[in-house]
Fold each of these.
Amino acid sequence: MAKNRIYLDWNATAPLLPAAREEMLRVLDMDGNPGSVHKEGRALKTEIEAARRAVASLVGASAAHVTFTGGATEAANLVLTPDFQMGRSALSVSHLYVSAIEHPALREGGRFPKTCVTEIPVLSSGVVDLSALEALLHAHDRSAGIPMVALMLANNETGIVQPVADAAKIVAAHGGLIVVDAVQATGRLPIAMADLGADFLILSSHKIGGPKGAGALVAKGEVLMPKPLIRGGGQEKGYRSGTENAAALAGFAAAALAAAADIDKRSVMMAEMRDRFEAGIRDAAPDVIIHGESSQRLSNTSFFSLPGLKSETGQIAFDIEGIALSAGAACSSGKVGESHVLSAMGFDPKLGALRMSLGSTTTLNEIDTATAIFAKIAGRRKPLGE
Ligand code: PLP
């Protein structure tokens, strides 16, 4: 990060951890193909299996149940499919119920036809509506197959934590499967896969300080697995073919080990900074709306709207002042789209919002600078209607 910049967009991606970089460089220099039986190949295989254990331990899973992918989006596309194998038998999933605030990686429905995807609404608090989920599953026609539910553990825009364990109980009672996107929660909340009741968890390396382009699908067991998305040489037990990116996985592992350590301590420090920021911006502009303020949120995230300030204008104004934050989710086009999360919570998406997300190296000084810049921007916004 350039010295004169303040990076407050950790939910888009976390800066690469020095330990992850070191591990990547070490493994990058190892020659050989992890699939080869000679010494060089076996050494790389050993690195991959060590990475698998590190990633599994971050979420309290068994290493044997971790399938590495090229990121969370790929993991989502692998698991969101009507076609599963349960031991030797095929298992059919006939419908996907996806929360209205999911990341597009899941909201797009993976390999399900659009007609087989239904949204689960959220309450104005930003929390998924469990009675609506219950009603949808109650009405599910089981003659064609079982239902699948996709629900994130924490939302990437608001940071609002979702009642995954309660949802999982409802899903299990209806004989369905639940896929949990834990991308934003990893390293920010302690995660025990069994306590969540998740059938599958989705993880991403770059949100926890590992490299971009690495992720994992973690399964509850070995028996039930989706039909492979990428076929070929049979790597990753046939669930994800292609020569493994061992260096990226070593970086992912280093980030996973760091993410698992001191979660509670980090969380308290982040909450202190986030609360200071929110108190500061409210002081500067009492009409600021802080989304999800009264819901359980990740301690690093603040998602706020300032009436009269468009997301794009706000984001550019902060950028010019040396601060990287974002207008909700990072959009591939670089444009600021309307937030489907705000719409799902019942707000006019045209209201616009900005997301400040901090991380382990953020300082109080940076937070105070961001607050002062907010006050400057708020002071020059146009009154509504002009
Ligand atoms: N899920 C959530 C909640 C995210 O925030 C993101 C990234 O923005 C993804 C999934 C996709 O992750 P990846 O970039 O590894 O494909």
Note: The radius of gyration is 21 Å.
Amino acid sequence: MEALKKRILAEGRPVGTDVIKVDSFLNHQIDAEFMYEIGEEFKKRFESKEITKILTIEASGIAIAVCTAKFFGYPPVVFAKKAAPNTMVEGFYSTGAQSFTKDAAAQIVIAKKFISKEDKILIIDDFLAYGEAAFALCNLAEQAKAQIVGVGAVIEKEFQGGGKRLRENGYFVKSLAIIEKIEDGKIVFKE
Ligand code: 5GP
């Protein structure tokens, strides 16, 4: 997605060789109009797919998933929570995931009532790095015996291998911008 690549180059800040900060439009301050462009682009990438729910993870995935839902006719958006709140008194699915940004292992949960075996799930997130978050979301959906029709990431950092692992495991993965490497403080996209 050319507009996204331009935006990353103009506003993205590499932190070392592993992390990119895009907090001016995606992760802290959100450019709502641009989120809808991202949602429309996801629709193009998953055009042929029938989707009954979009699954993401709090917090950064939520706005992206909601803006994407518009272009699929507003299927419900479910977001995994990073801890089971005490209001979640009914059953929930739970799995472990290593958090990239917090460098710690965490449990993520979704209430059982929001995903069922009839669901066709599109997983959406902001970044795809090592794939921990995406695999954890797949795991939750699979516990519910739902079908995963695709995994969409706004930004994939190819060099961290999560996209490759997901594809090797048979998931249909589409990323709107793929970064090959961060070198000498510069972001290099995959052609
Ligand atoms: P993974 O689980 O694939 O290793 O990492 C993906 C998750 O970590 C995403 O949910 C995202 O929030 C966070 N993340 C991974 N890499 C980056 C990055 O370079 N910048 C930011 N802001 N978040 C990242």
Note: The mean pLDDT is 95.
